[in-house]
Backbone:
């Protein structure tokens, strides 16, 4: 009985074996991120295989617009995680309840505004992005439906942020697993019964709603100290201002990364089908290559937040060194695999199109030497965000994107797809230089949220 009670307690990352904690903490985050990648694939696969190519294309043109809205939610979730982790490390439970009640009210209003505003603007937004006429109506229908499901996405991300800030990463993972299975099953059931893109959208909404409710039940059961009572449920303007101060740079980072990808994709589209196909496959593989680094970066962010809140600065630095060293080792290993077996891996996605495989591998052949640099970007970037220095997240992301765009514009006419690879690597170098200088300069110490509140 005692063991079961211990499992329900928040995970303090401010004491104990640093290496073991970071590894165990980051694995569920990695699996959750992996599931989110696969989650986005399910709708496309069902649409393409069981509905029609037009349905697949309709979802394809809708998703980038939807992701712009979702990037705002993700930025808010990351910022809330940072604040809660610091309050938790400092054992300021009243601040935790106040923050949760404040952000819950704010996110309810934001969610409803995004849901109905997005539904109204769905068709105009698709027209702005020059969606083909034959895809406009099904794409608008799908987009309206998923916009109406945004409040459930906010519910899941808010509750997941709360749990991760307390050191609980398994429950959000379990919720994603359940959600993915439900989404797949409902997709098939609705599509077989003639649901089309509407059925696919409804499946996604139902799956998100169930995962959000599941996390709400688990939060009330396992972390009652985080749930404000009726008398404690209030709106704190100062905490909202502080939250937005932390969150806005992260939102800008999310938006900048996504918009930069769209612009670069526009250049790739000018290079012909072989380059488009090769680069599409390469980018999918690259996303999976960087997943472990991103997971460790997220883990380091929460680890840093709890420890800086508890004034355990030396422990935070020890964890940072280990996390980055582990990230470098993982990316180096994956890069070696890509060096020797990259063409075969590309073939699993592309098939037998030799020209596309060669194009995709030409990108890898340059980038794989630079993948370990991302350990610094995500690792140190996560630590800096975790202590409250989120402005640097926006700065290094914007710098990286500007370098990528500048190099691409200058070299695309001469080097083709190789210019995209060179631009990516130089962008990573610029971002890593910024986070290294910021971390070593120690100016981040003045950004600690707990100190701000106390002062």
Residues:
């Amino acid at each position: 009985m005692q063991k079961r009670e211990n499992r329900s307690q928040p995970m303090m990352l401010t004491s104990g074996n640093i290496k073991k904690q970071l590894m165990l903490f980051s694995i569920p985050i990695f699996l959750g991120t992996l599931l989110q990648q696969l989650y986005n694939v399910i709708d496309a696969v069902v649409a393409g295989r069981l509905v029609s190519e037009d349905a697949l294309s309709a979802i394809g043109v809708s998703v980038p617009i939807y992701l712009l809205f979702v990037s705002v939610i993700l930025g808010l979730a990351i910022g809330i995680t940072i604040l809660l982790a610091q309050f938790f490390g400092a054992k300021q439970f009243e601040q935790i309840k106040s923050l949760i009640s404040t952000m819950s009210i704010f996110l309810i209003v934001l969610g409803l505004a995004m849901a109905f505003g997005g539904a109204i603007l769905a068709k105009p937004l698709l027209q702005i992005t020059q969606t083909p006429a034959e895809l406009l109506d099904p794409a608008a229908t799908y987009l309206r439906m998923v916009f109406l499901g945004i409040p459930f996405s906010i519910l899941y991300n808010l509750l997941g942020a709360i749990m991760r800030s307390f050191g609980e990463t398994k429950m959000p993972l379990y919720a994603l697993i359940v959600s993915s299975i439900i989404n797949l099953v409902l997709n098939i059931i609705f599509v077989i019964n003639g649901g089309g893109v509407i059925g696919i959208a409804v499946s996604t909404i139902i799956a998100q709603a169930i995962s959000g409710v599941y996390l709400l039940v688990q939060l009330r059961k396992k972390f009652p100290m985080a749930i404000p009572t009726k008398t404690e449920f209030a709106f704190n303007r100062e905490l909202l201002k502080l939250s937005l101060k932390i969150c806005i740079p992260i939102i800008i980072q999310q938006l900048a990364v996504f918009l930069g990808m769209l612009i670069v994709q526009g250049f790739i589209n000018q290079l012909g089908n072989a380059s488009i196909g090769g680069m599409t496959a390469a980018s999918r593989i690259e996303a999976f290559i960087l997943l472990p680094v991103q997971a460790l970066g997220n883990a380091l962010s929460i680890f840093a937040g709890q420890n800086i809140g508890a004034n355990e600065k030396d422990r935070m630095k020890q964890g940072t060194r280990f996390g980055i060293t582990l990230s470098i080792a993982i990316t180096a290993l994956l890069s070696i695999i890509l060096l020797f077996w990259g063409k075969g891996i590309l073939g699993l996605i592309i098939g037998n199109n030799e020209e596309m495989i060669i194009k995709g591998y030409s990108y890898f052949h340059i980038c794989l030497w630079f993948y370990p640099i991302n350990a610094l970007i995500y690792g140190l970037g996560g630590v800096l965000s975790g202590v409250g220095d989120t402005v640097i997240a926006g700065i290094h992301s914007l710098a990286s994107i500007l370098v990528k765009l500048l190099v691409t514009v200058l070299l695309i006419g001469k080097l083709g797809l190789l210019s995209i690879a060179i631009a990516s690597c130089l962008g990573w170098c610029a971002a890593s230089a910024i986070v290294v200088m910021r971390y070593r300069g120690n100016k981040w110490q003045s950004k600690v949220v707990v100190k701000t509140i106390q002062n």
Residues 19-235 form one domain. The CA atoms of residues 59 and 137 lie 11 Å apart.
